[in-house]
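Changelog-linked ticket: magnesium ion example.
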Amino acid sequence: MVIKNVKALINDGGFGKIEEVLCDDGKYYARKTFCPSSQFISNPTLCATLRQRFIREVKTQKMLPEELFIPIVFEDLTSPDPWFLMPIAEDVYINEISMCKHERRLPKGLGDILNSLEFIHNRGLIHRDLKPQNILYHIGRWKLADFGLISQDKEILSQTITTSHNALGTVMYAAPEQIKDFKRVTPLADIYSFGAILHDIFTDGSRVPYSELSGDGEIGAIIERCTKNNAAHRFKNVDALRKRVLYYLSKDSIKTDEAGDEKWVQLIRKFDTWDSDLFENFVFYLKRNPRSRDILFEMGSEIIDFFYALDKDLSNELSIIYCDWVYSRAFNFDYCDVIIGLIFKIYEKTSDLEVKSKAAISAAELGRSHNRWYVMGYVIKMAGKAIDEHLAFRISLELELEDQNIENFKRCARGINLSINSYHPIIKETLSR
Ligand SMILES: Nc1ncnc2c1ncn2[C@@H]1O[C@H](COP(=O)(O)OP(=O)(O)O)[C@@H](O)[C@H]1O
Ligand SMILES: [Mg+2]
């Protein structure tokens, strides 16, 4: 790719600059070029390390899926000032923060950010520089960018991390352990930064760097939990954090105003005291009162474990009610990720083929109707090549019964750039008829 001209400077950071450039394919891109500021140029050893870090940044970013991260379209890593091209992002998360405050609405994109974060954490990586400036909007999603500090190489990090935090004002988002002891930094440092972003959104955002943060009400409690000084007291991972945050964001749409509902909501919160009689009453209540099913927003992974240990048959009945509820209700876009976690939990927990196939079918409906990439991946997992032949048969049967379900399965595969070949051969055959 040849650069025809530089149209504008987008950003000039301490280590590199971002420019809008026109290339010989007639398109505009964002080019990031390694270009340490004058304060570093006088130190050639540091510059060499920074250059190495930049190259690692590019190599890492290239391996990440573009559904969750800003992709790299072209790179030149051999030039003395290495550079790479990205698509031009449509927006930066700082703007979403000020817009949602201005319009007095809930923020968009928190689910996207958590998915990107979970992806790297699951692979043993830590972003280390999570902040609104490094979250960009591209083709319908908020994606993480700027992997300058993602390097796992302690040597490189030790020489550059404090410099970069000071140079770039990241102090407002970095966890306390990031200045004290960079070696012991874990993914919980990113959880701290996420808490600082919530602090920007839900409070006036004024704070002392590296301190414990808080705010009002339930979201305040979430911010506190994210930003504990002692990392061991924070949410233990993205999954636990996601549940709390997305539940908070969806709450307004939850309708549990039937007279008996509140009683059940309170009881579910003390689920570990239940016996099978109470459990049976609960299942009976949900069957008799379909309009009360939003109580199911209270469900969680530990509750499913507890119920399955208490009574398998009742749990299977409850699971079917749960799957039907998911099939027929619309959810907050981000909240789908919590729901699919529970659907998958049910799928794994049960040995009943009807429950398993209902779980897969409702997952496909959820994924298709909300166009949620994260959910679609689970559908492939639940109906993929590795599943048991009897289950594949059972899912196929459900598919045959409803054209809508066939369409959903096809759309889920297409939605994540796969084809029906990714499904179990028996299911594939049903889908290709
Ligand atoms: N692909 C892009 N499209 C548009 N703007 C971008 C893009 N990449 C970065 N930027 C802008 O440039 C800023 C700095 O980019 P970043 O990669 O974070 O560099 P640095 O390492 O200097 O922080 C970002 O906060 C964003 O505002
Ligand atoms: Mg940045």
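Closing comment: Example verified and attached. The beta strands are 3-12, 16-23, 28-34, 74-76, 83-86, 91-92, 135-138, 141-144. The chain has a mean pLDDT of 91.
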